[in-house]
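Two entries, shown back to back:
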Amino acid sequence: MAHDRLWWRVAWRNLWRNRLRTLITASGLAFGYLGAVLVVGVSDGMLVELIENGTRLMLGEVQVHSEDYLPERNMHHTIGGYEGTDLEIFLNRITSQEDVSAAAPRVYGGGLLSSGEETQAVLLMGVDPDREPRVTTLLSRLVSGRTLVAGANEILVGDEMAEQLGAVLGDEIVVVAPSSDGSLGNDLFTLVGILDTGIPAIDQNYGLLALPDLQFLMAMGPTRIHEVVITVGNAKDSPRIAGALREFLSDSELPVQVSSWTDLRPELADMVSLMDASHFIIVIVIFGMAAFGVANTMLIGTFERRREFAVIRALGTAPIGIGRTVVYEGIILGVISLIAGALITWPILVWWHNSPIDLTTVISGFTVAGAQWRPVLRVEYSVQAPIVAALGLFLTSILAAMYPAWKATRVPPADALAD
């Protein structure tokens, strides 16, 4: 033990014989740690932004349907069949699950909107004005007017749909839709709000009605719904929560299908997986460059100490002792770099997390895999990323010292002393 302690002291002193070189190398590793953690943090922030924008606008994080509803979306395939289900009991059962934050029912239909001489095809969506804001941000995207009041025959449309119809707030719009009994439902609805979601597919094609109003228009009883949209605590946990909810509801008399957003939007899930994998590649590149720098610095130091190593070898020291010294230098360098890196990284990480960088004045938002991405760079941090980066830094400093250590053990004493 005492002999091993001696080699640690030798390694420590060797590092500080050239302070500038040691500080530059340690700084490189420390900033490599900072870069790795920030790359993961910014990437996670972009992923969270992408997932939230892809799910919180209208999709939701988990959805429940009748087993036969998807993918055809037949209006007759409601949860519980033609009889429907007790909506309050069903929703309370879903929200009783620990990971479920809120749930809201929906009804869908297709039809026509007519205002004056203009007529447009529309996808009708019946929402609960009280519950819907708890699961999505759709009703908060109003640019003018107000939200729906159930039972008042009111409608919301996108700004592009309103423009196509030539309709303004307060106008009466004729809504025509096929009913579940085979008839054709039609009624007058007052335009009370105009939406701007930034997604053309929604702004051009959707019309929102209060849930009971659309149920009445389509001759569907108040117990019949097509969909329950669910929000959870963490969108990344949606597949696990959907599986648990599927198992929980399997013992009920209602045959239902429970899907997470990864099932409903596979292209968005693929994009998230691709981005998730890419930041690890970037981290590997960062630490690879750091390893090259450490190895290069330690090789220079090894070459400068060839005569030293030769004298130590001539005095009877085994090659493994010399190699151990160089490895110990790498370990000490790694510890110093890790402490410095943590001291630099955490304040920046916390500040950036609390104060996202808004680039909306420089570039506009765009759509990725059907989800709108706002140019706001924010950092998400967890315990996992800094720990993994710390292990990466530590292993980098050790592995980078291996080759210089091996070179140090290969110094021939006679040749080195003769130089």
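entry 2 starts here
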Amino acid sequence: MQIDRLADRFAPLVLSLVRIMTALLLLQHPLSKFFGWPVAMQRPGLFSLYWIAGAIEIVFGALLLAGFYTRLTAFILSGELAFAYFIGHAPRGFFPLGNNGEAAVLFCFIFLYFACAGGGPLSVDAVWRKR
């Protein structure tokens, strides 16, 4: 089918675009925690779990945005979001809809996918592979 050929042709580019958008969405969280932008949030206490999570998200979110060591970066972020879900959301109820954990679960599994699939052609990793 023609749609299959079209999908196969653009799949690597879409992988890169999904990685970039996911990184931008993730980066909203630490930027809000630390700088009050784009939405003001309560500032975390220095070296609290909330602060450490923000530090991980800002460093590895930036790496993911660039596609730099994408597989390792995404694996670390997947683990961080799994930890965030089980520490911060699961104690409030079993179902993600009831404990406000849908975003953490989605981010966790999207990052797990990037850990397997890589960053796509629009990444630092792809540029290095070409050399």
